[in-house]
Predict the 3D structure of the following.
Amino acid sequence: MKVLVPVKRVVDAYVKVRVKSDGSGVETNNIKMSMNPFDEIAVEQAVRLKESGVASEVLAVTIGPAAAVEQLRTALAMGVDRAMHVDAEEGVEPLAVAKTLNAICDEEQPELVIMGKQAIDDDSNQVGQMLSAMRGSAQGTFVSGLETGDGEITITREVDGGLEKLKLPLPAIVTVDLRLNEPRYPKLPNIMKAKKKPIEEKSIADLGIDTAPRLKTVRVEEPPARAGGVKVSSVSELVEKLKNEAKVIQ
Amino acid sequence: MSILVYAEHDNSELKSAALSAIACAQQLGDDIDVLVAGHECGGVAEQAAQVAGVRKVLVADGEHLAQRVAENVAPVIEQLAADYDYVVAAATGGGKNVMPRVAAKLDVQQISDISAVVSADTFVRPIYAGNAMATVQSTDAKKVITARTTSFEPVAAEGGSASVESVDAGSDAGLAQFVGAELSGSEGPELTTARIVVSGGRGVGSAENFKLIESLADKLGAAVGASRAAVDAGFVPNDYQVGQTGKVVAPDLYIAIGISGAIQHMAGMKESKVIVAINKDAEAPIFEAADYGLVADLFEAVPELEKSV
């Protein structure tokens, strides 16, 4: 089974983001960038499928400026077989990302696409579902468990009331949630080896994808700040405040 | 402007999230039709017809829609969408799952998880776990939107008298096959709509200790939530998780117990009216968001709090 894993370069999850003073976006200059944490989980799952002999080949793909190759190196160090960089400007919207991945799926014909359920920068949570619709295939979103079978997979999804199990025929698109696995830290020799591996280059324009934005960012602002709170010294003071000041309990 | 709202339900009950989606729709226009897609869901349609401000309820009933798998629901919405300027759903697990599939088929760039309507084509949505708010203008002729339920006060469940009509339910796509569900069916109020939420984090220490949190919640008539750390550690099931990737809540009172306050957790609760934090670490970031902070050992403070309320 061939597995495709799209990965995205995002501001590291532990960086406290700052809004640019001109309101045009979020500061990304001189900020630590990483692979989207959900995509790391997807890469880990794909590599495990390879290690267990289920996957024959794992291809990681990223769409973005040249710097995004760094995240492909991470994927290679984790154990993917091939890496593909689709050159594009920053901020390609989910719909255009899905179209790009669809074009790559046409060429590569993966039986399984595993990806993060959302990117932690724009929090859109769209690409997997969109790609699945475009390919007319089954989708398993927010996945916390994955079993492979003959021509099908059984997934466990995190839903609002708990968990749900679905059986999906292959090819299928899976978007992963936090509890699917714990991604490995690549070992130093693997990091070194990954630096020398070839990266397949494509450009989004050559794939014929229209990347004209459909959403115009009017402005980006800080969220309204919460007024500073107070420390209380005891449970009784807390209860008194909640009853008489905040009036949220009787 | 005409709006199609995809309603969240469980074949027997219309969910509060649907009422929030309708509230969002009301800010977009007056001609609001509600789609109830499911199986043997006539009761839900009747409830939807009672909702204030609804023009028409469209019912797509079929066995293949019983579990509302995205592959079967999306074509129903897609087909109806031709007649509408907007398609709106709540940004819940169900809405997030199906709507991008619809948007892709319509060649529309969906606007996810909006927290405000600025004008007919301009919306506000949180990005970076709510650490920034983006105002975006859509150039698509048709707009596909998911709405953050905590940002839109649910409309009244009664007072309307919409007509109910059947629509083509389509057929089974033969893709996803429902195997089963493991619903935690927690007692007490629903997390996303509760007036009070009591949440526990890593500091609670174990599933056994989580009874402290549940007991306090019970006394307060509150829903129980948790941080990602508590869910990852197996103290409680996944559907308790509050945060960027879990549920977004905005109760009148949110009590965070043994929660340090990671950005990702705050993203799910910082719209709460009053936030209380109980943590033994005085430096925990949760105190920056808390209206009332108590630096204390939760194993002493929580039982005492339970006795005093």
